[in-house]
């Protein structure tokens, strides 16, 4: 149940804030070049168990991708499904998923120098949603889904703060500040962005956030782990 806020400019360049929810017992590594042989030059947040990435970026190609889980109707045992961890890595390498997938449901946010889109798989259909200029938010369902409580609660405020940065170098500060404001909610609250999903039937808590900018001049990404899973520092 990760959450991403993205601001797409009229020239197609993008800025985003992504919050990762995962089982704290599942080992991971922070942003780095963890795939020098298979994906040289690619940086990402590394999942040690499956070897994949939640977020990946290729500064050379100017591409970035973020993986979010979503519900599906796939009638396959877990032993028969493929890991979704390769999706972000393959995406920044220029190989987006096509057609039916032997994977559980996902939203794959793909960002490049002049545009962005979401590829959504629900176990039956793989759909593409282009992202228009403006501020948008996505979690475990569709882009800007008004039925997702955290989107309904916080999207208008993120949009209001999108142009509040004092300098280009500090563009993310108003968004991160608002992320901190949102953490005043109980992490079990459906409206919360910094989350504890265990009461909802998932063993996941918010572990880190990342900010990224993708433009014709390149890709920049920074990440920060939370000191305590599910709690704002």
What does this structure look like?
It is a single chain. This protein has 233 residues and is mainly beta. The chain is 12% helix and 35% strand. It contains 3 helices and 12 strands; from the N terminus they run E-E-E-E-E-E-H-E-E-E-E-H-H-E-E. The protein has helices at 87-92, 149-161, 173-182; strands spanning 3-8, 14-22, 28-32, 43-47, 53-58, 63-69, 106-112, 115-121, 126-130, 134-138, 205-215, 218-225. A 7-stranded antiparallel β-sheet has the order 3-4-5-6-7-8-9. A hairpin with a 5-residue loop joins strand 4 (43-47) and strand 5. Helix 2 (149-161) runs antiparallel to helix 3. The longest helix is centred in the middle third of the chain and has 13 residues, at 149-161. It is globular. The relative contact order is 0.21.
Shape: globular
* Pattern of helices and strands: EEEEEEHEEEEHHEE
Mean pLDDT rating: 93
Major sheet summary line: 7 strands, antiparallel
Distance between the termini: 20 Å
Number of strands: 12
Number of helices: 3
What is Rg? Answer: 16 Å
Which structural class best describes the helix and strand composition? mainly beta
User: Beta-strand percentage?
Assistant: 25-35%
Strand arrangement, major sheet: 3-4-5-6-7-8-9
* Spans where pLDDT lies below 50 across 5 or more residues: none
Which descriptors apply to this entry?
mainly beta, 35% strand
Fold blueprint:
Elements: E1 3-8, E2 14-22, E3 28-32, E4 43-47, E5 53-58, E6 63-69, H1 87-92, E7 106-112, E8 115-121, E9 126-130, E10 134-138, H2 149-161, H3 173-182, E11 205-215, E12 218-225
Antiparallel strand pairs: 1-2, 1-10, 2-11, 3-4, 4-5, 5-6, 6-7, 7-8, 8-9, 11-12
Helix pairs in contact: 2-3
